[in-house]
Design brief:
single chain; D-Maltodextrin-Binding Protein, domain 2; 2 domains; five-stranded mixed β-sheet; 11 helices
């Protein structure tokens, strides 16, 4: 396991849930939301202000929001009670469930689906045609606790019988680019031989740039990113949160969806929808 990943998992493992923390059914008197910054945190804060105003009016309670610069920060906010709700990917949710008792309530619908895949991208002129061709080559991922940008690409190589030990034993060098766009641009610009990232990263390139890139492998389906609530939130509060976000799917406030990471809408989800992610995470040592 890569050192960076090991340190992150070790840090998360220290986030033990205190006995009785957030025990009981607690009605919300104020909603605190933690957003994840895929790009500029200040831009995210500005983008979501209309959403926060909508939630304040729809719920009839004060709404505060802040931005975490990494997923570990989102998980910690849910664990220590400084946030009631957060946005995260499948693997981050599994970690938040394991270490903070968090629960998913809604899944994103994007490009018409509540699921997506991870793909292995290379340049068309690279001569690389199969996953086996990447042995001894360089690869870019997004984050050590990313679902589509690390866990599922690793599982793809493992399921093809190529990855039997640590990733560093198969690839000449591994980079964590920090985001899908950075990773696929590293491929396009020839800085790395390949990138293991979400399927929609392709759309982050300009139209003329896409002609230079292709994918040579695709992972299992994984459930979309989700809205997660902290442990101990009352059923009534969870139901209200679901209702106000599901109401965005149709109606006068639908335009707010583009400010929530550009999703098409939301569907109800539960922990069962993330069982496969949990199993794969366990197989790769992310959880025990």
């Amino acid at each position: 396991m890569r050192v960076t990943q090991s340190l992150l998992i070790a840090a998360l493992c220290t986030l033990a849930i205190a006995p009785g923390a957030y025990a009981g059914e607690q009605p919300l008197e104020e909603l605190r939301i933690v957003f994840i910054a895929y790009q500029n945190p200040e831009q995210i804060m500005d983008d979501v202000r209309p959403v926060v105003a909508y939630l304040k009016e729809a719920l009839g309670i004060p709404v505060k929001h802040f931005v975490a610069t990494d997923y570990a920060g989102v998980i910690e906010a849910l664990r220590n009670g400084s946030a009631d709700m957060g946005f995260m990917g499948p693997l981050q949710y599994v970690l938040a469930h394991k270490h903070a008792g968090a629960q998913p309530i809604l899944g994103e619908v994007y490009k018409g689906n509540a699921f997506y895949t991870s793909r292995i991208f290379v340049r068309k002129d690279s001569g690389l045609k199969t996953l086996a061709d990447l042995k001894g080559k360089t690869i870019a991922f997004t984050d050590p606790i990313s679902s589509s940008g690390y866990l599922y690409p690793l599982d793809l190589f493992k399921s093809e019988g190529l990855l039997r030990g640590e990733p560093e034993e198969y690839f000449r060098r591994i980079y964590f680019a920090g985001g899908d766009e950075q990773a696929i641009r590293a491929v396009y610009n020839g800085f790395v031989d390949s990138a293991g990232i979400g399927q929609f990263a392709y759309n982050l390139l300009r139209a003329e740039e896409r002609d230079e890139v292709k994918f040579i492998g695709e992972s299992k389906r994984l459930p979309s990113h989700c809205i997660v609530v902290r442990r101990g939130l009352s059923d009534e509060s969870v139901s209200k949160l679901k209702d106000v976000f599901l109401a965005l799917n149709e109606g006068p406030h639908k335009d707010l969806l583009k400010m929530l990471y550009g999703v098409d809408g939301y569907v109800e989800v539960s922990h069962e929808d993330y069982r496969q992610v949990e199993e794969i995470a366990r197989a790769h040592g992310f959880i025990d």
